[in-house]
Design goal:
alpha+beta
Length: 502
């Protein structure tokens, strides 16, 4: 018998003993008067003398430590990521409650009635007068001094990670603050939150490979969306002039510290503005999100201090020149010369070559918040051309921490030009680019009814959260990231055996 099986049998037996005392091993409703963090915030600075005027509390939490001392004992209960000590004395609680206390295992969930006091060592504690049992743990939780360190287990069993590592909870609390901040800022400016299809007959709005599913009744293949863009712009055509969606996107691509196939984006569209207007708006959105998440515009990320108080702006050509690695540093004239670009890249067109050089020489060096603007038309099939320079479009991307955080442009609203761009993408697909756009004739039809001049933008919630919480991997900011299938768990058969089943 393995150690885990032995422990499971012991705890199952303990469950029956607890039931014999008259408690329900999986509890019932428990109305608390306080949450543990509220007690620590309100009474954490109170002296023993100030607590002499009795403060009654009723709390619930998970047992994280236990110390038995004969006719008394201490334990720490954890709730919402914070711990509070409880003190249980045999002559201060009913007899069966003290018997229950002696049976507790680490990880059990209990309810406590009592009053606040300070121990001889000065620790704020609850002097217990009544103990209730709320839920039994059958499996062991990680050892308290080291927490849960196995990264694979942390991601796969996030529930255990949250129990063992309170700092993980803080990451997701701050993630929620970031989303709330972005939502609040948009709604204060008159944006309407909408929902668009996650299963689509045609995928579009980004350069990515989709996941394919099948609808049995209609007998058609559908695609999980790679972006909501084309649906949101259809709404702008229909008169919803400021719309946004906080959306889940799915891209059938590789896994890395910066990529997860399922991820969260904010996308918003505003009629009667352009990419220049969105640059100013983006800087304010990010500055305020940092403040709301952390109370400061400065975020520590890896070895850097990233300040969202300001956002630098460079054209793509300027960025290639400034961040060029190695000898023969080019001039602005060089990076504007199609022949020079094609000599320094294996890409098929000058625009694709410029983008390739930027990604190789510049992207990872953009640590402080930076807007890179003016992109080649080949890589931007949905953006409006720059006046007087049809080889470039009115587009920018936001970078920080060496990675892309957002993508925005003045939306292309000329249906004839959009049709030509789609056809250009079809040609790229025929040359082997599996991420190139398809023709979306309904979207061209929508534009043919007239879309006002519009600016649109997408911001990656996961990557922004990485920077604002100093998380090294995108998996650290997604509660349940995609992982390879787990091997056999073998718990269900053990539970059957405990029930006397085969």
């Amino acid at each position: 018998m393995s150690l885990e099986d032995d422990l499971l049998k012991q705890r199952a037996a303990r469950t029956r003993e607890i039931e014999a005392l008259g408690y329900r091993p999986y509890g019932q409703r428990f109305d608390a008067t306080h949450a543990v963090p509220d007690i620590l915030r309100e009474y954490g600075a109170k002296t023993a003398e100030e607590l002499a005027a009795r403060v009654d509390v009723r709390i619930a939490g998970r047992v994280m430590t236990i110390r038995h001392m004969g006719k008394a004992g201490f334990a720490h209960v954890q709730q919402n990521g914070e711990k509070l000590q409880i003190y249980v004395r045999k002559d201060a609680v009913p007899e069966r409650d003290f018997a229950l206390f002696k049976m507790l295992d680490l990880g059990d969930i209990v309810g406590v009635d009592g009053y606040l006091f300070r121990t001889r060592t000065g620790e704020l504690s609850v002097h217990v007068e009544k103990l209730e049992f709320l839920s039994k743990t059958l499996l062991s939780i990680p050892e308290k001094w080291h927490g849960l360190e196995d990264v694979e287990i942390r991601y796969r069993q996030r529930y255990l990670d949250l129990i063992a590592n309170p700092a993980v909870r803080d990451v997701f609390v701050r993630r929620a603050r970031i989303i709330s901040s972005l939502r609040r800022q948009l709604e204060s400016r008159g944006f309407i939150e909408v929902e668009t299809p996650m299963m689509q007959p045609l995928y579009g709005g980004a350069a990515a490979r989709p996941f394919v599913t099948h609808h049995n009744t209609l007998d058609v293949d559908l695609y999980l969306r790679i972006a909501p863009e084309l649906y949101l712009k259809r709404l702008v055509v229909g008169g919803l002039e400021r719309v946004y969606e906080i959306n889940r996107n799915f891209r059938n691509e590789g896994l890395s510290t910066h990529h997860n196939p399922e991820f969260t984006m904010l996308e918003f569209y505003q009629a009667y503005t352009d990419y220049r207007g969105l640059m100013d708006f983006s800087a304010e959105l990010l500055r305020q999100a940092a403040l709301d998440a952390n109370g400061t515009t400065v975020a520590e990320f890896e070895e850097h201090k990233i300040d969202f108080a300001s956002v630098r702006r460079l054209s793509m050509r300027e960025a290639v020149v400034e961040f060029w690695t190695g000898a023969d540093k080019p001039s602005i004239d060089n990076v504007a010369d199609p022949e020079w670009l094609l000599r320094h890249s294996s890409k098929a067109t000058a625009g694709e070559a410029l983008t390739d050089l930027f990604e190789r020489h510049g992207e990872e060096k953009l640590i402080q918040p930076t807007i890179i603007y003016d992109y080649p038309v080949e890589t931007s099939p949905l953006s409006k051309n720059k006046p007087g320079d049809p080889a470039f479009v009115e587009r920018f991307e936001i970078y920080a921490g060496g990675m892309e955080l957002g993508n925005a442009y003045t939306e292309l609203n000329d249906p004839q030009e959009q049709r030509r761009r789609f056809e250009m993408q079809i040609g790229m697909r025929q040359r082997g680019d599996q991420e190139a756009h398809q023709m979306d004739e309904d979207y061209v039809r929508a534009l043919s009814y007239g879309m006002p001049p519009t600016g649109g933008e997408g911001i990656g919630i996961d990557r922004l959260t990485m920077i604002l919480t100093n998380s090294r991997s995108i998996r650290d900011v997604i509660l349940f990231p995609l992982l390879r299938p787990e091997g056999p768990i073998d718990l269900v058969q053990s539970l059957r055996e405990l029930d006397g089943e085969k």
